[in-house]
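Supplementary Note 3. Input sequence used for the single-chain structure prediction.
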Amino acid sequence: MTESNIQLQQRSEDLISEEVKEIISYRPHWMIRRGNLVFLSILLLMILLTLFVKYPDVVNSSARIVALNAPKLAVARREGKITAIYIASGQNVSKGQHLALLETTADYKEVIQMKSWLQYTMSEIENGHFKNFTTKILPSFANLGDLQNAYQVFSHEWVELQQYFGSGYFQKKRSSLQQDLWFNAQLRENIGKQKALSRQERDLQEMEFSAYDSLTRDKLVAPLELNKYKASLLQKDQTLVQSEAQTISNDLASHNKQKELLDLQKQAIDQQQKFYTALLLLKNETEKWIQQYVVVAPENGTIFFVFPIQPNEQVNIGQELFYVQPELTSYYAQLMAGQAGLGKVKEGQLVKLKIENYPSEQYGYIKGIVTSISGLPNRHDSFFMRVALPDGLTTVYKKELFFRNNMLAGAEIITDDRRIFDRFFDPLFKLWQ
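The predicted structure, written as discrete structure tokens, is reproduced below.
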């Protein structure tokens, strides 16, 4: 290069500013240099994803969860503190088993002992062993609280029952009346024999009177002699009348004794009935006490706590404390769908049930399967559908929901699971056609 060319180049460089040099020497970011290619790649990827990603068609409806042999709740029947808990969560219980005890003035053990004794007494009476209680000693219970008055009434009837039967008054009185009846029967028999003998004597006397009457008509015997035989005949008739009166008097006495015996038996029945009534009253009051102060299992199954419960915890009347899950429990959903989109609903389609009491964002939804669709609408132009719940009340988040009556849910019936590609390009294809 000549000197003149070098000088010319230096002048050229002097004419270019520093800013221009900086712009000329700047290298753009790769996103700017290859942005079109990246955008095209992303677009192609999104189009490719539309071939695989599906978006379902849904028919919205309302639903109600129904249970066959649903879980049963055990609630507090009165307000107060829990003084004892007799079970643990997850334990198997039987119907009527005692779960917890509320605060009371009675001794729980005494009440249970009395209840057991009452059940034994009732069974003995029903089996016809009533007389066994006329000599037994009544168990003593002094800490029954609200049941003490009913127990005292029953105790009074128990004492009267034993005085009437246990002391022998009833047996002695009945034996005495039965013996009087036997004596009257013997006396009646003797009176009957006397009547028979008197009748025979009267018949003989009548025959003799007839013979003398015939002789008197033949004037073989004086009429005065005939009068003697007639007087004897009348005397025999009088003896028969007296015997008949004795028979009536004896029958009347026997009848009175029979009435006394019936009255005695009625008194015995009344005494037994009073005792049995007091027994039933005490039994009913005991059952009422248990219903008020003791929380019992409403069903056979597995017991669970509604919330963590501790002794001395205050509870309100009607508060739910436990629930029992029966061994065999099944659930299904009842759906009421309107006319819109009903033609696309078929048996076997998937249903998403979102329970109102349990937000789906936190608990998830329950899967269901359409099993039947009614052919006729109801008065609201809605169609009834039954949906089976193969997983029960377990959501897709593996959370078990607790069943309550009239549990409502929103339902989404998946009628068609179409690809996004088809949804986007089908209208374009139709326009092209």
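Residues 183 and 254 are 9 Å apart (CA to CA). The chain has ten helices and 14 strands.
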